[in-house]
Amino acid sequence: MAAVVSSLAASISSFLVPPFPSSSSSLFFTKFRSAPFLRFSFAVAPLCYRSGGGVGGGGAGKLMAHSLARATLGLTQPANVDVPKISFAAKDVGAVEWKGDILAVGVTEKDMAKDESTKFENSLLKKLDAHLGGLLSEASSEEDFTGKAGQSIVLRLPGLGSKRVSLIGLGQSASTTLAFLNFGEAIAATAKSAQASDVAIVLASSESIANESKLNTASAIASGTVLGIYEDNRYKSESKKSVLKSVDILGLGTGHEIEKKLKYAEDVSSAVIFGKELVNSPANVLTPAVLAEEASKIASTYSDVISATILNAEQCKELKMGSYLGVAAASANPPHFIHLCYKPPSGPVKTKLALVGKGLTFDSGGYNIKTGPGCSIELMKFDMGGSAAVLGAAKAIGQIKPAGVEVHFIVAACENMISGTGMRPGDIVTASNGKTIEVNNTDAEGRLTLADALVYACNQGVEKIVDLATLTGACVVALGPSIAGVFTPSDALAKEVLTAAEVSGEKLWRMPLEESYWESMKSGVADMVNTGGRQGGAITAALFLKQQKFEDVRCRGKWGLGHGRFGGYAFTMVDCATRPTLGKSSRTSWKAEKFYQPVMNNHLLRL
Fold first, then answer.
1. Which residues pair with 428 in a beta bridge?
2. Which residues contact 192 (CB under 8 A, 6 or more apart)?
3. Where would a tag sit more exposed on the chain, N or C end, judged by fewer CB atoms within 10 A?
């Protein structure tokens, strides 16, 4: 059972931002004068209470139990919706004897092979068909079911302990995490359609799965089922509740180890759902202050291993974060810089890792406002997808408590808006490492916030940094909507990240860091501009972060962005500029949300 998320004890008033002082020093720490800022007063109002247990429920936890910093624009408040409570168990019961609503059988195209008399050759299907008087074979032929991925049939036939039997196609073969995650999602869809309360899952060829792979297979199926059954209905006046209560996994073993793996799936799934809700929350609900409060509540819930530091604008100014504050300058919602730190409950720390997430709770584009077909301004609430992944990781790690690693979760949360106090094209901002940046496009704001976040991360003495960001639309053009781009000068860290993604069922592709493209990023009046031309936009964005050489920052070893990996320090930027899936979302709202699973699998924790 996942840990219980604590009640709203801390007031948002602790995160209130003092007014920016009006002085001769610029907000951006250049020699320009900034206009005075307005001061806003705030009241605390609870928005949403969420309870739930079982896999994906996070125990009797509260997810997204918001307190607004002020009355929400539009008076929108998330409804009180229960997270699906699903009990998973690994059982040693025959498929024929199991009693319940649906017996879901995963079959490959090879499993569907039949002999000359049109009888199944697969031993499990042959046994089921015998008890059904040959009707399973007959029905699969009539429905033209061949086991291809995406195919499924549900039959109500007498002869088995279950009320219905469902065949779900796995494709030519099923051996990857992604295949079993998709299988779990298909089971969820079948259960929803049939309004089933209990389901058994069995693979037609489970004996072909190596013993060491059965645990991961069970975990992936469980995760896929939970995330497939979940729907974000908090903003709907009416919604249907899932009736699925229990899932039995047959044929993959029993005992402590598989139960432990299912508990792991529970913890990770609850964190994924938390991240999905962050991404799906509209910008009038999820402001930087509310995002900071959600982070603070994670630290409060897992206070034995996680601590929180939330910096307001004045504190960020003291740290000379001019690049980040420049982006935040136009918004009436003040910025909040989030730093959570996980330390294991016992034992020595062998590795220090930083996860940095882009946290733009809304991106209008600033004075370079997003306009025209395809600009997707109405979806720009998802520009904090990187922070959702990072805070979801914090929640999961707080529950699982891995040994030997210290993890820093860093988010520079703010909005990119338009006002008389805002950053203009042509302005020069100064990052906390002293680098000056000519802003030639206010819509290339994410890299400006990340520059200061990376300096801060480096100051924590970490050996590895993984930066997750919805950074560029150019990456979507290059790789499509479901593959994230990986940029790193470190071959070793690239291998770790790509291996981690494969284990977690995510799709990443390493992209080049073409140094000659940096010519388009040079400025005549500052150290650099913040964006180059349209060509190679994802690469120049990565080069911008790579060029933030932190020689003057107290790092362990040298800064590894510009020169590969030195002194045990390495950096990777993952550009996951993909779109959220709203409403009936499937496995994730934002593809990188489950990227943090590899942290639990220790792929990014090794020295």
1. 438
2. 229, 242, 244
3. C
Other Cβ atoms less than 10 A from the Cβ of 220: the count is 24
Question: Is the CB of residue 229 less than 8 Å from the CB of residue 191?
Answer: yes
How far apart are alpha carbons 10 and 289 in whole angstroms? 13
- How far is Cα 261 from Cα 420, in angstroms, rounded to an integer? 54
Residue 260: count other Cβ atoms within 10 Å of its Cβ. 11
Q: Say if residue 91 is exposed, middle or buried (CB neighbours under 10 Å; 0-12, 13-18, 19+).
A: middle
Positive or negative torsion for Cα 248, 252, 255, 259: negative
pLDDT of residue 503: 83
* Per annotation, catalytic residue among 261, 370, 464, 591: 370
The per-residue pLDDT for 104 is 98
**CA angle (66, 71, 75) in 5-degree steps:** 90
Alpha helices, H only, 426-536: 446-458, 473-479, 491-504
> Would you state the pLDDT for residue 71?
52
One of 261, 352, 447, 587 is an active-site residue; which one? 447
* Residue 78, pLDDT score: 82
Give residue 497's pLDDT. 87
Q: What is the largest CA-CA distance in the chain?
A: 90
Distance (Å, rounded) from C-alpha 246 to C-alpha 64? Answer: 25
Which residue numbers in the chain have pLDDT < 50?
1-70, 550-569, 578-596, 598-607
Whole-number pLDDT of residue 297: 97
Q: How many Cα atoms occupy the beta-carbon half-sphere of 488 within 13 Å?
A: 26
Whether 447 sits among the annotated catalytic residues: the reply is yes
Distance of alpha carbon 533 from alpha carbon 128, whole angstroms? 62
Spatial CB neighbours of 588, under 8 Å, sequence gap ≥ 6: 227, 272, 275, 276, 581, 594
Sheet (strand 246-250) strand order: 87-91, 246-250, 198-203, 100-107, 162-169, 152-155
- Contact at 8 Å (CB) between 539 and 485? no
pTM for the model stands at: 0.83
